[in-house]
Each structure stands twice: as C-alpha cells, then as structure tokens.
Amino acid sequence: MHAFIMTADKALKKLKEGNAKYLNAETSRGNISRMLRKYTYENGQHPYAIIITCSDSRVIPESIFSAGLGDLFVIRVAGNVIDDHQLGSIEYAADHLGSPLIVVLGHTFCGAVDAAINHDPQGYIKYITDEIKLAIGDETDDFKACCLNVQRSIDMIEHSLEIHQIEEEGLRVVGAVYHIEDGRVEFI
To answer: Is Lyase set as a keyword in this record (predicted)?
Structure first.
C-alpha cells in the first residue's frame, strides 16, 4: 500500500481552480522557479494529478490548469488513446508517485477524432483512428465523439487490474474536455 499525496477531490478542486485562473491569463501562471527546480531535483516529483491528453500543440495541460513543475504527470498521445504503454505510465504515477487523480482530457476540434469520423488514414495513424472508431462507433458529431473517446479511455483505465487495485485505495478517474475555442475545461 502507498500513500497518496492528497485526496482525489482536493486534486480535482486544484485543477478546476487552475483552469479558472487560466481563462483570464495572458501568460503561464505555474511555478517554474529556480528554487522549485532545485527542490524537485533534490526531493523528486510529487504530481497531484495524472493527465492523459492529446498531443495537439494547442492543448498544454500545465498552462490549462495553471500548474508548475512537478504538479502534473502528463501523458500525451494523439487522440488521447490508451494502450499498455499509457497504462504502465499511469500505474507508475499512481503507485510510485502517489498521484490520486487520473484525468482523461479530450479536446474540441481534435484532428484524430476528425480523422476517425471523416477519413480512412493509412500508416501508423490508422492504429490511433481504429482505437477512436471503437470508441465512437457511428457517431458523427465531433463533440459527442470526443466524449465517447474519453469514456473509452476511462473504461480501459478502470478495467486495468493493477490500476483497479489502486482505485480501491482512493485513486479516482475522471473525464474532461478542453474547449479549444475558449480555454474552458468541462469535466464530464
């Protein structure tokens, strides 16, 4: 058994408060100071949330949640799809770093979701769009498809045996959508 650094509810509250700050910010508000860099070097990282999100360059979790060094454990992959690599990273952050909250963060105007709905990509991209197609089925509404894709990732996380065992100790998994058009995060 391990100890979480805070409760999942407190971590979620911090994310919501950080997003509220971000909505009116002109620059990043997270602490990236020299003193904090030295502290995290000497004492390690203790992120209060694990964020699984898309690789889209407009989706920057540290900025979106007004977070600084060591606050978030961010896992990025196009379409925020989940496979064994992401599950291993989540398990590490929850079990070894004490992160109490997992957030699957989709976003509006996602190119990977659009590709799954409207195109038939080839090459390695097809691995991503095939996963998204499993999540969305015949859905053609971008926002609804985004939410379905987030939910599939949540389901995959929750059904992972190792992560499920940690959940029983207080780990929480939630979904959210980042609205590219205005910066708002909607927890779903």
So the answer is: yes
Asked if residues 27 and 68 have their Cβ atoms less than 8 Å apart, the reply is no
Q: Quote the CA–CA distance of 134 and 136 in Å, as a whole number.
A: 6
- Tokens coding 88: 């291993």
Mapped onto helix, strand or coil, the DSSP state of residue 186 is strand
Which residues neighbour 13 within 8 Å (Cβ) at sequence distance 6 or greater? none
What residue numbers does the annotated binding site cover?
54, 56, 107, 110
Q: Are 104 and 80 in contact (CB under 8 A)?
A: yes
Looking at the DSSP bridge assignments, the partners of residue 104 are: 52, 175
Domains and CATH numbers, the chain: 8-187 (3.40.1050.10)
Q: Which residues are annotated as a binding site for Zn(2+)?
A: 54, 56, 107, 110
- Please give the model's pTM, rounded to 2 decimal places: 0.93
pLDDT at 170: 85
Residue 106: closest CA among 181, 178, 182: 178
Of 52, 58, 61, nearest to 82 (Cα)?
A: 52
- Write the secondary structure of 58-112 as one string of H (helix), E (strand) and C (coil): CCCHHHHCCCCCCCEEEEECHHHCCCHHHHHHHHHHHHHHCCCEEEEEEECCCHH
Query: What element of type H or E holds 177?
Result: strand 172-178
Res 1: pLDDT: 46
